[in-house]
Amino acid sequence: MNSKENKMGTMPVNKLLISMALPMMVSMLVQALYNIVDSMFVSYISEDALTAVSLAFPIQQLMIAMGTGTGVGVNAVLSKALGEKDFEKANRAADNGIFLSVVCAVIFVFIGLFFVDPFYMSQTTDAEILQAGHDYLSVVCCFGIGMYTQIICERLLQATGRTVLSMLSQGLGAVINIVLDPILIFGLLGFPAMGVKGAAVATVIGQIISAAVGIWMNISKNHDIKISFRGFCPDLKMIGTIYKVGVPSIIMQAVGSVMNYGMNQILIGFTSTATAVFGAYYKLQSFIFMPVFGLNNGMIPIIAYNYGAGQRKRVLQTIRSSVILAVGIMLVGLAAMQIFPAQLLSIFNASEHMLAIGVPALRLISLSFVFAGYCIVMGSVFQALGNGVYSMLTSIVRQMAVLLPVAFLLSLSGNVNLVWLSFPIAELFSVTLSTVFLFKINKTVISQIGISGQ
User: Distance between CA 34 and CA 29 in Å, rounded?
Assistant: First the structure.
């Protein structure tokens, strides 16, 4: 047995989960930190600049959806192949995953060149917001190759149990972004002041450097897979297998992009400050949600590997431990937003008007955290077991069938504070549906693991 099989298949589950997830949680916290720092520096340009960056989030979320969805598919296929000791299949999954990341980048170059201005004009007529939005989002879209390569390289490292290397790769990019933000935004150390565009340039430079490090790590340190493009031809069957798992994840996150766009439309009808508050909330909540996503990134290859190896007991124990950890993290986040909402918003140079809207917003939205940790873990469990459609359906119902319609109906009251209640209401539906799907997948998949044919 090789060392990776020993680790994934025999190490005590709780110890394995912590060793896999902790580096990813740290790297995700660094990622969340630079998201907050990014918006913090932009807010010191003006509130309109912060609004412009907030309005860009649906497109950025769509970009991330394409990358992480592809990565989820590659991760699940590769981990399961390694559990089955099918190393040739694992190599094909890695090669085709890298190819798909390049395809994603090309798509968003096209969007960056032709669709950024129409996207902003559909949301606002404010000239300052339009200009700042163009400066920021066109750079992010046209230079997305760094982000996509970074994501796929991290997933390859995670799938083979090398989460510390993944943490170092991602963390380096985030630190570079944090350092470059004030330099490029405000023109320090002899650099020209680029304003909002400087934030975007700092972001893509960090991503490109992280991607380069990730490529080097996979070639020189990741001995469980062999990346080679000599004579490469896209494997349509493998791509189909990757996206069987990945497409539901892409749709799930793309639905989130539509939700954010719709919510921005609802909120800007009150005031652009409400949109800035929503953007600030998303930056803050990433500091709470990102560690849970990091936990998921450590959990998925464990479940997928032991699913492939027929180890049902280890799959169940991984799920239980992940839920407990995720709910604990979310409760800490709930407490922070209930006790310190004004202090958290002050990070973004919040005006009195922004605080008046933002303090009740953070307190009401964060009530959904009670259920969100459980739902996030369940979504990743479904993906790891090859049933990403369950995650997709849960996300669609939560965001499109419940959250947006409820937010719109509550906005008719004329009270922006009531709009925030749509989040905990939607999460109640999500936890119910996630539990129903858990019972179904336990009956059809988990209970069959280890039985002949698995």
Answer: 9
How many residues can be counted in the chain? 454
Question: Would you say residue 199 has pLDDT above 60?
Answer: yes
State what percent of residues in the chain have pLDDT above 90. 45
Give the range of the structural domain holding residue 112, as residue numbers without chain letter: 3-448
As a whole number of angstroms, the distance between CA 341 and CA 281 comes to 10
pLDDT beyond 50 at 321? yes
DSSP per-residue string spanning 173-224: HHHHHHHHHHHHHHT-TT----THHHHHHHHHHHHHHHHHHHHHHHHHT-TT
Report the pLDDT value the prediction gives residue 8, as an integer from 0 to 100: 66
Instruction: State the pTM of this model.
Output: 0.78
| Strand ranges (E), 213-257 | none
| 222 phi-psi bin (left φ>0, alpha ψ -120 to 50, beta other) | beta
**CA 387, CA 434: separation in Å to the nearest integer?**
12
Count of domains observed in the chain: 1
Rounded to 5, what percent of the chain is helix, strand, coil? 85, 0, 15
The rounded distance, in Å, linking the Cα atoms of 113 and 123 is 18
pLDDT value at 164 more than 50 = yes
Question: Are 125 and 48 contacting, i.e. CB atoms less than 8 angstroms apart?
Answer: no
Burial of 236 (0-12, 13-18, 19+ CB in 10 A): exposed
238-272, pLDDT tens digit by residue?
888 888 878 877 887 788 888 989 999 999 889 88
CA dist 246 and 233 (Å) reads 20
Question: Max Cα separation, the chain?
Answer: 67
Chain-wide mean pLDDT for the chain?
87
Contacts of 111 (CB under 8 A, 6+ apart): 59, 141
Residue 325 lies in a domain: yes
CA 359 to CA 45: how far, in whole Å? Answer: 22
CB 342 within 8 A of CB 348: no
Asked whether residue 355 is domain-assigned, the answer is yes
User: What percent of the chain shows pLDDT beyond 70?
Assistant: 97
Structure tokens at 213: 């490090």
Tell which residue, 426, 397, 59, has the closest CA to residue 252.
397
Rounded distance between C-alpha atoms, residue 434 and residue 219, angstroms: 38
Residue 454 lies in a domain: no
453 in a structural domain: no
List the structure tokens of 274: 């409400």
